[in-house]
Amino acid sequence: MSTLRVFTSRKKNCYFISVDKGPLLVRASFYYGNYDRKLSPPSFDLLIDGNHWTKVITSLDQLVYYEVVYVVESDATSICLAQTQPNQFPFISALEVRSLDPKMYNYVDPKYALFVRSRFAYGASATVRYPDDFYDRIWVPESGGTGVISVASEAISYEVDVPEEPPEAVLQNAITTSSLSQSLTYIPDFADKKAAIYMNLYFSEVTDLDTTQKRSFRIYIDNNPKSEPIIPPYGKVTEMLINYTAASNTSFSLVSTLDSTLPPLINAMEVFSVSDPLVVGTNSKDVGGLVELQTQFSVLQGWYGDPCLPSPYTWDWISCSNDVIPHVTALDLSSFGLSGQLPDFSSMDSLVTIDLHNNSLSGPIPDFLGAFPYLEELNLADNSFSGPIPPSISSNKTLKLVVSGNPGLCVSGKSCKPTSTDGTKSSPTPSSGGETSNKLPIILGTTIPSSMISSAIVAFIYILRHRRKKAAIAAIAAG
């Protein structure tokens, strides 16, 4: 990989990808290659749909990649990179998203994700992936270690009728032992703490055995039998699923049964760790209000991903509650260079603080700003608002209201001309001094042409409105 994209601003940067609802395989790849000439490969966090995926640890000169399988309940998914240390900027070389068949990996509750730890093609001489694997899973060749031998299958074709659809290419080879008494053992490279794991093991006989031969074995975990005898079929495949809470020293073995004449074998294996329960995401009404703000003000369109989650990586200009489904409780858009009229974000009914001071907002103060049930502070200072303050705001004695620095605003003790709904003054009438007041100039709200609205925001709207998009087998490479 010769290109990458680096993110030097904001604590969280995201991709939005339109997908079909259902299971996805997502792969994020990273090749540092000393692009910045600092000889310092960074580390950072990888996030999916507001959930922590993994800590990315990059290498100076080696490609590293991470894979996850999870179920998407909406029409888009977000993959984000989050900076965790000063001057260690996240980057990405490739991002691949592929829809899976609904029957694949459906043994896991959709509330959990599967993080790919290993995927082996035993006895293979090269990596197996697309086009041999329709879903482009990466099957790494593995020899099995000392005392293990690789064998090639004599089968010409295979009947693959198991949910996870292993490619025929990984069934064409296997590993076994030279002695009937020797077992095949696998010890996962886990951390010290225990982890809930799933393992898919695939078995296919490599030889069309005669009636005097038999290959039969069991799965053992820490020297305890955990399965019935397994007899691999010739020209077909048997899949075995293991769900276990494993530690760093947990061992998995294939041990011949007493009546077997041949040692155990295995063709391929997948190992997954299970995520914590996936979050639902920020309250949908709050997301809708934020979409309105981002659509109106292009300067806000650089913030993507779940607004509140995970909690260390909330958007810079909001604050959120600690609820399981968090609400946005504060907007801090002071000095953001906003201009034009405010869009209606009244759906954000948990707001306690709204700070919009030191911008160029114009037109009348919207009535909806007085309808927030929990609002305690509203700062509209140093803008270009005009007309009267809505009674719903001025009559709220518990609200801390700041409106200074708005020359066209009618405040207590100052005469006020009626204001039309578009923010312009009505026809002038004589003032108390007999002079005619000049009309205020018509100030229209900023309208962003649809061609200028980023695809990320469009995708964000799709999440909110649950519109279906065409199936996604997408690959995004940084350019």
Automatic annotation (TrEMBL):
Keyword Translocase: no
Chief location of this protein within or outside the cell: membrane
InterPro entries linked to this entry: Leu-rich_rpt, LRR_dom_sf, Malectin-like_Carb-bd_dom
Pfam family, one: LRR_1
Gene3D superfamilies: Ribonuclease Inhibitor (3.80.10.10)
Domain Malectin-like: 2-274
Residues that span the membrane, as ranges: 440-464
Compositionally biased residues, Low complexity: 418-437
Top-level taxonomic group: Eukaryota
Disordered: annotated segments: 414-438
Topology of this chain in the membrane: Single-pass membrane protein
GO cellular component, one term: membrane
Subcellular location: Membrane
Keywords, sorted A to Z: Leucine-rich repeat, Membrane, Repeat, Signal, Transmembrane, Transmembrane helix
PANTHER family: CARBOHYDRATE-BINDING PROTEIN OF THE ER PROTEIN (PTHR45631:SF44), OS07G0107800 PROTEIN-RELATED (PTHR45631)
Record protein name field: Malectin-like domain-containing protein
Organism of this sequence: Populus deltoides (Eastern poplar)
Organism classification: Eukaryota, Viridiplantae, Streptophyta, Embryophyta, Tracheophyta
